[in-house]
Automatic annotation (TrEMBL):
It comes from Maribacter aquivivus. InterPro entries: START-like_dom_sf. Gene3D superfamilies: 3.30.530.20. The lineage of its organism: Bacteria, Pseudomonadati, Bacteroidota, Flavobacteriia, Flavobacteriales. This is Ligand-binding SRPBCC domain-containing protein.
Length: 165
């Protein structure tokens, strides 16, 4: 089974504290997720992020298909990074690292997601047609939404790439 990695970097002209407060609040996932995905938090987002926190979502990754997604916050370094891992949901593996690094112009927000697709060879065949396309669209939407909310650092280009291993 193939392992995939999505790597995204975006510079934002805001302070590290503001970036952390926005990005570590699970309620803001709805703000930076395309509306057509029907993303809703069911439980677990009612307190400040901590290791061991379980957050349950409902999401419609494809028209006509809604699923629950359960993630656990496994690591938190206040103000610097956190990691969420899928415990139940549409992926065979989902390990998402969120980093916030200070730069002169503001911060660099970096996401590294390692994931596997279920359904063996069928999943691998569907990846470039459906999954990769959708993940790239979601992260492009996030990039645009964060630009709208916070502005942009023109001197640092945003990066979005997907690799397979």
């Amino acid at each position: 089974m193939k392992l995939y990695q999505l790597h995204s970097k975006q510079a934002l002209p805001i302070g590290k504290k503001q970036a952390w407060e926005f990005l570590s609040d699970p309620a803001n996932l709805k703000v930076i997720t395309p509306e057509h995905m029907g993303f809703n938090i069911l439980s677990g987002a009612d307190r400040e992020m901590f290791p061991g926190q379980i957050i349950q979502y409902k999401v419609s990754p494809f028209p006509g298909y809604t699923t629950k997604w359960v993630t656990e916050i496994t690591h938190v370094d206040q103000g610097n990074y956190f990691v969420d891992e899928q415990r139940f949901g549409p992926y065979a593996l989902w390990h998402h690292k969120h980093f916030i690094n200070e730069i002169d112009e503001g911060v660099i927000m970096e996401d590294i997601i390692d994931y596997k697709i279920p359904f063996g060879i069928l999943g691998q065949l569907a990846h470039p047609i459906i999954v990769k396309k959708q993940l790239m669209e979601i992260f492009k939407f996030r990039e645009d939404k964060l630009k709208e909310l916070f502005g942009t650092v023109d001197s640092i280009p945003n990066e979005l790439q997907l690799k397979s291993f």
